[in-house]
Amino acid sequence: MNKELMEALDILEKEKEISKETLFEAIENSLITACKQHFGKADNVKVEIDRETGDFLCYAEKEVVETEDDVEDSVLQISLEKAQEICKDAQVGQTIHVEIKSKEFGRIATQNAKNVILQKIREEERSVVYNQYFEKEKDIMTGVVQRYLGRNISINLGKADAILNESEQVKGENFSPTERIKVYILEVKKTPKGPRILVSRTHPELVKRLFEAEVTEIRDGTVEIKSIAREAGSRTKIAVWSNNPNVDAVGACVGVNGSRVNAIVDELRGEKIDIISWDENPGNLIQNALSPAKIVAVFADPEERTAKVVVPDYQLSLAIGKEGQNARLAARLTGYKIDIKSETQAKDAPGFRYEDYIDDEEYDDEDYEEGYEEDGEYADEDGYEDGEYADEDYEEDSYGDDYEADASDPATEPQE
Question: Domain 204-405 carries which CATH code?
């Protein structure tokens, strides 16, 4: 029994996660390569390895010919006299197995055989690492900052290194070597030198995965994340829905005294997070998305994916937000193009008054009276409001005119 070989294979299987069968095939190929190097050809060479004991047999299949003079190729043929020394019953025309002693191989043939085995081990090791991280694609992992590569950052994820490109970094975030951070796996590519892993700190799915990891109700499916809009490093809006009427979706995500959302905010280096309730009614959803601003009326057109919103005069700048951020994120979150006007501006603006829809069968007074005149705020005993997190103050901009936010325009400016 080849005990040393089996022990070596056991170690490789455990440390490198390479199956024994793959290693046995590598050994077989290496012996065939050595035979080809030694004899010049190996078309008739066979290798058999006992998977239980590790014992192996290398032999050549040769045709039996009458005499030594009839042997045209000693690699493929053997005389009857020599064949009978191996097998007494050998006859002319038969094919017999002639054992090849691997100890007789020269130094070059042996070295080539060794290289074949090592190459196979390296290939399998890269394949194992690739498969391991490919399964993590579109998920988050914790990595250790190694070093800066120009403006990119090398992140160690355990068995492989990932690249955090400058375009996927949050402006203002600085990391020091050995610091542990969470990253979103964007893509895993297979290359000759091993897997190339690209990660991100700006992707909206990073926030979603952090909530899934932190909130038990999201993991078990009780609470769903319906939509998410993010401006990395500044603010994120997330819409949640509960499949259980006894579970408050917003409260579950906030946690006791804000413990759950605080943990995510800390990981995102202070990025503000607004958690709102999802609503199938687009008017209610848009109202929630524009929180903390109070809304007078919402006129939504599901077919055109547009909405006209009326807010109190003193709430206009709050609804728009600093540089239009609140309205812009609300537009991305809901998928609606949102046009915001104050009550004063709406008096003379078509489409912003209830009377504009009185004759339209798709709208009636009940649709707007129910839900639209409420401020849409959610408050629990900890003082958290729907769409507002932990005493944070929205920064406001003052616009003299109305404002229109488009989900497809990341930098929508106020209309003249």
Answer: 3.30.300.20
Entry field: residues in the chain: 416
Helix (H, G, I), strand (E, B) or coil at 208: helix
pTM of the model: 0.69
230-251 tens-digit pLDDT: 999 999 999 999 999 999 999 9
Does the structure show a pLDDT above 60 at 365?
no
The Cα–Cα gap between 119 and 128 comes to 14
- List the helix and strand counts (H, then E) for the chain: 13, 16
Token output for 55: 């014992």
Phi first, then psi, for residue 286 (nearest 5°) are: -65, -40
Cα–Cα distance for residue pair 311/297, rounded to 1 Å: 7
Higher pLDDT, 363 or 179: 179
- Name the E strands within 257-401: 272-277, 297-301, 306-311, 337-342
**139-200 belongs to CATH 3.10.20.580:** no
Task: Compare 369 and 187 and report the one with higher pLDDT.
Answer: 187
Q: Which fold has domain 3-127?
A: N Utilization Substance Protein A; Chain:P; domain 4 (3.30.1480)
Token pair belonging to 389 = 């997190």
User: For tokens 């950052």, what's the residue?
Assistant: 153
For residue 234, give the nearest of 185, 269, 267, 275 by alpha carbon. Answer: 269
Q: Are 244 and 222 in contact (CB under 8 A)?
A: yes
d(CA 3, CA 151): 52
pLDDT band per the 50, 70, 90 thresholds, residue 114: confident
* pLDDT (tens digit per residue) in 303-345: 999 999 999 999 999 999 988 999 999 999 999 999 999 999 8
3-state helix, strand, coil in the chain (%, to 5): 35, 25, 40
Residue 74, CB-side half-sphere exposure with 13 Å CA sphere: 5
The per-residue pLDDT for range 10-39, each reduced to its tens digit, is 888 888 788 888 888 888 888 888 877 777
* Contact assessment for residue 195 and residue 133, using Cβ atoms and an 8 Å cutoff: yes
Closest CA to 178 of 153, 154, 146: 146
What is the residue extent of each domain of the chain? Answer: 3-127, 139-200, 204-405
Through-space distance between the first and last CA atoms of the chain, rounded to whole angstroms:
88
